[in-house]
Write a structure and sequence with these properties.
This protein is α+β, with helices and mostly antiparallel strands and about 220 residues long. The chain contains eight helices and four strands; from the N terminus they run βαβαββαααααα. It comes from Kushneria avicenniae.
Amino acid sequence: MTLYGVPLSPFVRKVLLVANELGIPLDTIEVPPHSDDPDFRRISAMGRIPAFSDGAFELVDSSAISRYLIMQAGSDLMGGQNPRRQAQIVVRERFADDDLAPALTDVLIERVVKPVRLGQTTDESVVETALESRLPPVWDRLESLLADNGSWLVDGEFSYADFALGTHLASAELAAVMPDESSYPNIVAWHHRLQSLAAYSAMMTNTQECIERMKKNLSAQGPAA
């Protein structure tokens, strides 16, 4: 199985989390969005990451790829045969991708992508705007979900939903915009539980190694003309 993308993307990280948890080895080919790599573009005509292949079977979209891996492994991460649990997991992922991800996009670009991949200076005013206006509503919602559900996001039991949202919390971790424990104790406690998981730790190691490679490549290129 082959995964195309870079773990700066929370959607690539989501697939890595699932594969790590299930013990599924993936051959990862690091390509940025809209790469001209012909194998990647054959799968992802619009240039979006991640893209995935399992032999002749090819997929785009992190949710579809994750579900494929979970079903292939016969795992209960997606809720098993419980329709209510399955539905709740889908709702949590929609919140993750439709609300949490967009709120974190600007800070991830400014604090990680621009300095690490593009060699550009962070615009801290953009970060401040996100911290003051975009992030509080999603932090409030996530805090409420955890207060209502317990240790994990669906009825207190670990599931794919925790990876679907946890991959975006990793963006906050990488960009150093984690919510404050005094205001959001349930989020911080949940984050600590995620960090204790081998799958999450391996994903963050993979991501940090990718960042270091990008920094070295950028340094080798020298200053922009």
